[in-house]
Write a structure and sequence with these properties.
The protein is built from no helices and nine strands. By secondary structure, it is mostly beta strands. Strands 4, 5, 6, 8 and 9 form a five-stranded antiparallel sheet that branches. A four-stranded antiparallel sheet has the order 1-2-3-7, with no helix packed on it.
Length: about 130
């Protein structure tokens, strides 16, 4: 699993795995635009379902500029992840530098109404220099 998803973190019974790909066909380094896709897998190793309600991202470019992005759910969904199941999605990130990083958290809701935050591991965004 580490080869497919080199970045991972655990919060309680929830594991978040991340794989990143630089997308040369959507990037234009000569114009100062680099683009990556990232594939996230959220695994529920617990005994009760959880629902992903919100996300918060910290995106840092190669100059150290930070952009905070937050919102409901992911890719238009607020998935319920059953015990022993996982949820996968793919999204993207543009930057004006050839390198950067992303990290963040998900706000999750248990069946009993308790809220908890799940750490998204920090992952590198590395593209070719201009």
């Amino acid at each position: 699993m580490a080869i497919l998803f080199p970045y991972h973190s655990s919060t309680g019974d929830i594991i978040v795995r991340v794989a990143v790909s630089y997308l040369a066909d959507q990037s234009d380094p000569s114009a100062g635009r680099w683009f990556w896709s990232y594939h996230i897998r959220i695994e529920n190793g617990g005994r009760e379902p959880v629902q992903l309600m919100a996300r918060e991202w910290r995106i840092t470019d190669g100059r150290g500029a930070v952009q905070l992005v937050s919102g409901e759910g992911v890719v238009g969904e607020m998935p319920v992840i059953a015990p022993g199941e996982s949820f996968d999605y793919v999204s993207g990130c543009p930057l004006a530098t050839a390198t950067g990083s992303m990290s963040g958290s998900y706000s999750m809701l248990k069946e009993d109404g308790d809220w908890f935050d799940v750490v998204i591991p920090t992952f590198a965004l590395i593209g070719p220099a201009a």
